[in-house]
Amino acid sequence: MALEGSANIVCFGPFRLDLKAGELCQDGERVRLQEQPFKILKMLLEQPGEVVTREEIRKSLWPNDTIVEFDHSINSAVKKLRLALGDTAEDARYVETVARRGYRLLVAVDGGQETNSGVGGAVAATGESAGSNRERAQDAGATAGRLPVPRRATLWLGGSLALIVAGAGIAWVLTHRRAPQPLTELTQTRLTFNSGENSVETDALSPDGKYLAYTNPDGIHVRLLSTGEERLIPKPPGDASAAVWSFDSWFPDGTQMLFDMVGPGTQYSMWSVSVLGQAPRELRGGAGGWGVSPDGTRIAFSPGFPNHFREVWVMGSQGETPQKVLTAGEKDVLEDVHWSPDGKRLAYTTKPSAAMDWFNTAIETSDLTGADRTTIVSFVSSWMDDFCWLSDGRIVYSRADRPSVFNVNLWQVAVDDRSGRPASEPKRFTQWAGSLIGGLSASADGKRLVFLRRAYQSQVYLAELPTEGKKMSAPRQLTNDEQSHRATAWTGNSQAVLFSSGGGIFKQGITQETAEPVVSDPQGPWVPHLSADGAWVLYMMGDPNRVSRLMRVPAGGGAPQMVMETRPWWDFNCASAPSSLCVILEVTPDEKHLTVTAFDPVKGRGKVLRTIDKDPSANIYVAAVSPDGSTLALSRDRETEMHIRLLSLSGGPDREIAVKGWQPIFWNGLYWAPDGKGLYCGVPSRNQGGTILYVDLNGNSRVVWQFKGIGGPVWGVPSPNGRYLAMENHPINSNVWMLEGF
After folding, report:
1. 551: Cβ–Cβ under 8 A, 6 or more apart, which residues?
2. For 275-302, what is each residue's pLDDT tens digit?
3. How far apart are CA 732 and CA 53, in angstroms?
4. By CB distance 3.0 to 4.6 Å, which of 66, 220, 631, 717 could disulfide with 62?
5. Alpha-carbon distance values, 58 to 4, 24, 71, 81 (Å)
């Protein structure tokens, strides 16, 4: 629809655009909007719901063939527009990115006003009520944040990163969503506005609903919600000052908080932290806390290793008289323990210990002797992030249905706190798209709920590796189109990076601004690798936790073909010519072993080269075959520091190297250097987003690149000629929101 001549004022959502004055207002307040973002907004308003192509934008902004880096400039202008609207690419409420085409306006437009009327009473052409518009408008400023995991920060190192892995192959869903329609009249308020480098890690609302406590890399913050006044609580001196603190719960008097401290070696300890200025006090070592009972006399906790808690204990508020309450099943772990409103029962989540099955979760309850267990809700192939038990008996939980693991919503179910049995059917009460929700806590009266809204967008960076007498060049961003990318390989000539991204596999030359498709499939192909001879691009289709299909497509282009079906798998890759070996690391049906099996890109499955005992405590295995095909490097999580096993595939001896002072490698984080003399290792860090190390075969390490900020997995893929390193990182942005009226 043409805007000029029909209206001077155009309204959409909570915004009012004065075309004549070139001014944008939100709820009566002017929003700064530069010329190019203004022009793009005008184009979107003229075609609501339709795709405005990048070519159309280019012609509008630079009609005289001005020499400009168009892609970068358009991306920059769209980002400025989104910033003005309080919008994000990951959690789009107004401007949706249509992958590799352009942009679409997601809201209805009211263009019939000639005078200065406010947007508060404007009703969109869809017939939605003003209340619905208001709820959508309040939701619009959300910048989603950290990945959906239990509240404590170190659990992010396992569970949440596993979600990134699961979600990476199906991120195409984000490019097909439409504007969410709220189900109920809810009030949302954003409480923190932290940047990606200073994202909120854990959070909790005080029992009286007046204070928000949260942690970020700076430490522990307490904010008075009525005024925004905030102060930073000092950490104790010594080793604790360099540790990561994660919030468990408030004590009911509102003057103390229960925290976990994660120090060197991923060891947990529990601390009481005062808001009145007293020094933090350690309550128990070697354990992680869950929460304080409603009367403040008891604390629920779990001994052991994060993400592998198998027992729940209860002790006095000062750490006295610990008693075991319950133990998980043989193959299960326990998480997210909460007290019932009357303090007589505990609710907790139980899930399989194998990361491959973490989408099968249940919320259960038991009494304080571990007896009278009940199941509240259970999920199959669905991600349950976090929950809390409100004073009115409702359990509120966040849940995402697969394959849309990025669309997490809030659900509620009534529970009889005496029997611990459900008293109603589960009911969803939000309808958000593109949100990752966790960190749930509520005020004692159950009227206020706070949560973390999280987002991440992975990008590929490129650097020239150091040569004799030179340092590595400063990394530059290779991809730049607001999609999330997962780079895992290079083309054989070392001139282009292969990566998976929303509905396809792409390659992008090291001197190119845009990528070209290799495989297009809405089912989400992922993890591209190159065959040993460079003739084929190999990739996976399907769920790695179940039967998947290993596929091939000619490196020069052509039709995809299936190589073979696989069992649940952890990794696959190929050596380099003249070796022709490709291997896949799979889990045996009894889940007690891993097999290293050779395969041919054309002929399919070959013989089993090695069978390895699977450590029941490990969640993640990472493997890489050496360039000459003689050795498999294998690493796993659940260790206090990085170890890499070098397993012979040719009958020689095995050996192991330890990399002191560094955490274990995470998903996709292990790549051989082309000369076979060392490995590039991606290490998630607690105080930074992650580090890429070069580790020689004696265990000596040096930092290649370190991503500053909170983030997920990070890794580096060297080019076949050894000149370049393609680096992947997953920066995370996380902030706290408050919900009322639910």
Report:
1. 519, 525, 538, 539, 540, 541, 560, 561, 562, 563
2. 888 888 999 988 989 999 999 999 999 9
3. 28
4. 66
5. 21, 22, 9, 16
The CA-CA-CA angle for residues 135, 140, 145, to 5°, reads 120
Q: Low-confidence residues of the chain, pLDDT below 70? A: 1-7, 64-72, 90-91, 100, 111-185, 236-242, 263-267, 305-307, 353-359, 381-382, 401-406, 433-434, 456-457, 468-469, 482, 544-545, 685-689, 708-712, 731
Q: At residue 56, what is the residue type?
A: E
Task: Give CA–CA dist 245/200, Å, rounded.
Answer: 12
- How far apart CA 174 and CA 92 sit, in angstroms, is 9
Cβ burial, residue 212 (10 Å; 0-12/13-18/19+): buried
Distances (CA, A) of 658 to 617, 652, 671, 717: 19, 20, 16, 21
Task: Give residue-wise pLDDT tens across range 383-405.
Answer: 777 899 999 999 999 988 654 55
Question: Which residue's entry shows tokens 């923190």?
Answer: 192
Q: Which residues share a beta bridge with 738?
A: 189, 450
Report the predicted TM-score, pTM, of the whole model to 2 decimal places. 0.65
The DSSP H or E segment spanning 113 is strand 110-113
Q: Give the SS3 label for residue 504.
A: strand
| Lookup: tokens for 583 | 């291997």
HSE-CB for 591 with a 13 A CA cutoff: 14
Query: How far is it, in rounded angstroms, from Cα 307 to Cα 158?
Result: 7
Dig out the tokens for 280 from the structure.
């933090």
| DSSP SS3 for 493 | coil
Q: Note the Cα 278 to chain centre separation in Å.
A: 35
- Please say whether the beta carbons of 626 and 616 come within 8 A: no
Please give the structure tokens belonging to residue 29. 């307040």
HSE-up of residue 472 (Cα within 13 Å, Cβ side): 22
How many residues comprise the chain? 742
Q: Mapping DSSP to helix (H, G, I), strand (E, B) and coil, where does residue 265 land?
A: helix
CA–CA separation, 320 and 337 (whole Å): 19
Q: Any residues with CB less than 8 A from the CB of 583 and at least 6 apart, and which?
A: 572, 573, 574, 596, 597, 598, 599, 609, 623, 625, 632, 649
Residue 622's H or E segment, with its range, is: strand 621-625
Sheet holding 15-18, edge to edge: 29-31, 23-26, 15-18, 9-12, 110-113
Backbone Cα Rg of the chain? 26
CA distance 218 to 523: 41
